[in-house]
Amino acid sequence: MPHSNQPGRSVASRLFEVLFALRTGRSRLTLADLTRETGLPHATVRRLALELVEAGALDRSPDGGFTVGIRLWQLGTLAPLSVPLRTVALPFMDDLHAALRQHVQLAILEGTSAVLVERLSSGHAVDVASQPGGQLPLHSSGVGKVLLAHAAPDLTDQIIAAGLTPHTQHTTTEPTWLRAELAECRETGVAYVHGETSLGVDSVATRVLNAEGEVVAALSVVVSAGTVDLRTVRPTVIACGLAVSRSLGWRPSAGTRQAGPLARAAGPSSRSRSSD
Amino acid sequence: MPHSNQPGRSVASRLFEVLFALRTGRSRLTLADLTRETGLPHATVRRLALELVEAGALDRSPDGGFTVGIRLWQLGTLAPLSVPLRTVALPFMDDLHAALRQHVQLAILEGTSAVLVERLSSGHAVDVASQPGGQLPLHSSGVGKVLLAHAAPDLTDQIIAAGLTPHTQHTTTEPTWLRAELAECRETGVAYVHGETSLGVDSVATRVLNAEGEVVAALSVVVSAGTVDLRTVRPTVIACGLAVSRSLGWRPSAGTRQAGPLARAAGPSSRSRSSD
DNA sequence: CGGGTATGTTCATTGAACGAACATCGCCGT
DNA sequence: ACGGCGATGTTCGTTCAATGAACATACCCG
Questions:
Q1: Is B11 on the interface with A (CB under 8 A)?
Q2: Cα A89 off chain centre by
Q3: How far is CA B82 from CA A26, B50, B137, in A?
Q4: What is the DSSP pairing of strand B66-68 with strand B103-110?
Q5: A109, closest residue in chain B (CA to CA)
Q6: Which helix (H) or strand (E) segment is A275 a member of?
Q7: What DSSP state is assigned to residue A127?
């Protein structure tokens, strides 16, 4: 039986199975790697991979390794997140970075993860593994919590159903607790993380709104635990988030739909549920 | 005849015809746009585009526009030019930017164009249209000339055969003249451009070498004509290019294959190949 | 030299891709 | 109201490109 693939699968799906076998940390794969990764017959993988090379989507080094091609990278730069979001946010992130001398991150929601879009790091700050293009968990990162809090409610159900993987002993694994955190975040517009992603790393995150008052991104400052008082960082982060939102066309009045309570959150006083 | 496409074309090729219809400045296309752009029957384009959306390669806005998807952007960030080239070059480009307060560009060769990989701009400097991911002509830009000079000789023939499109009245359109410039550049490692890409914009470009002594990129400073003495900029650019090359593992001794003459070019005076 | 792994090549089979034709919707000018 | 027009969406018989098991080669290691 020389055609025993399960029917219903399109060429395109197979093609992208090969393409997306390249992931963070696995950005250079051999033909055998691709075969293992996809589970497809090696003859098929070979044919598809060579077609991808011919199209310029992949590059092949003389030693046989496949990597993402320059043309595909170029195509990626056309993604709408480059403009206006990144362009608009970058100067403000620069300011935030200059003021605090700590990591500053910008992330958006994609499927069931937060995707890191932009990042400014300080040499002397804690090292975080993530790079632009990398993924962060929705339930245990600052930006993740902000994005999850403002996403469709059933996404939270999905995330909880999928299991709240504990990355450290501080990761929130209790569904009720997480839901409470998210509700709090919806109220204040801010999310805190204390060593939930990795030990000794804290972060404060806030939301970024567009002209329609929708949460389009999350902005966070990541600090080494204990070095900085998060209560100091909080208003700075909030102000920066508001500044970016404003530049995207958001106005406090226009934003009543989702962003109403943020006004209260902006003041550090009211009910400072601190961190210590 | 319900199957009148010219045979020999693969699905993959059609798929990428649709994908690469998205170009700089045309990063958001409707179905009709894609159909016009590719010349394929609209039923085919529709099917392919929807498959691309399902795979996450494209995003479709509610109003029907197709844009590059986030997953494709993520995939692009895995391209080998991000690491090590960009990562290594960025700090040095920062220094160059800090020292000169002018545009600093990093580009690589891709096909018959130079592709802008990284760019630092100063608000008060001349405005150049190009963005990371954008293309620059090989015959009329600084980085282009550097890359062309060190590429396979038949690429020059190709470029000349394709016609030296004049972008301004200063663009080199005479093949012999261009070849002379390229020879000069091979000798000195530096290329100058005086208003060839756009009027009033000058640039100085130099090469970046890897551990094997191959030219892997070009580095340039772009200035408004007349504001800066290019003779001042030249040694700074050269030193920066050498610094990046060193960080990539290149050593003057090891680089004799292609990089021999650079030593002379490095010193403003004939042969003080200064590193001190 | 035999076993293992990575890569490359062949070819009969067939189902997925194809696209002409048809259908629908909204828009604009008359 | 009507008809022309462009954009989008849907159908379906035809057929050729995609498929993958089998074979072939090359290399490494014990």
A1: yes
A2: 15
A3: 14, 30, 22
A4: unpaired
A5: B70
A6: none
A7: P
The answer to whether A37 faces chain B, any CB pair under 8 Å, is no
Predicted pLDDT at B122: 73
Separation in Å, CA A133 to CA A11, A114, B216: 26, 10, 23
Alpha helices in chain A (DSSP H): 11-19, 31-38, 42-55, 70-76, 87-100, 142-149, 153-162, 175-188, 230-247, 256-259, 262-266
A247 CA to C28 C1' in angstroms comes to 37
Res. A191: pLDDT tops 90: yes
Question: Pseudo-torsion of CA B258, B260, B263, B264, nearest 10°?
Answer: -110
pLDDT digits (tens, 9 = 90+) for B135-180: 999 999 999 999 999 999 999 999 999 999 999 999 999 999 999 9
Burial B17-48 (b: 16+ CB within 10 A, else e): bbbbbbeeeebbbebebbbebbebeeeebeeb
B3 touches strand C (CB under 7 A): yes
Residue of least CA–C1' distance to D14: B2
B28 touches strand C (CB under 7 A): no
Query: Does the beta-carbon distance from B72 to A68 stay under 8 Å?
Result: no
**Cα B93 off chain centre by:** 16
Closest alpha carbon to C1' of C10, residue: A43
How many other β-carbons are positioned within 10 Å of the β-carbon of residue A3?
5
Of B16, B20, B132, nearest to A77 by CB-CB distance is: B132
Q: What is the pTM of this model?
A: 0.88
Share of chain A above pLDDT 70, in %: 86
Contact B93, B60 (CB under 8 A): no
Does A230 have pLDDT greater than 90?
no
In chain A, which residue's Cα lies nearest the Cα of B67?
A79
In tens, the pLDDT along B87-127 reads 899 999 999 999 998 999 999 999 999 999 999 987 665 66
Minimal CA separation from A46 to chain B, in Å? 13
Q: Does A79 touch chain B (CB under 8 A)?
A: yes
Percentage of residues in chain B having pLDDT higher than 70? 86
Find the residue in A nearest to B135 (Cα): A74
Q: What tokens appear for A121 in the block?
A: 């790091």
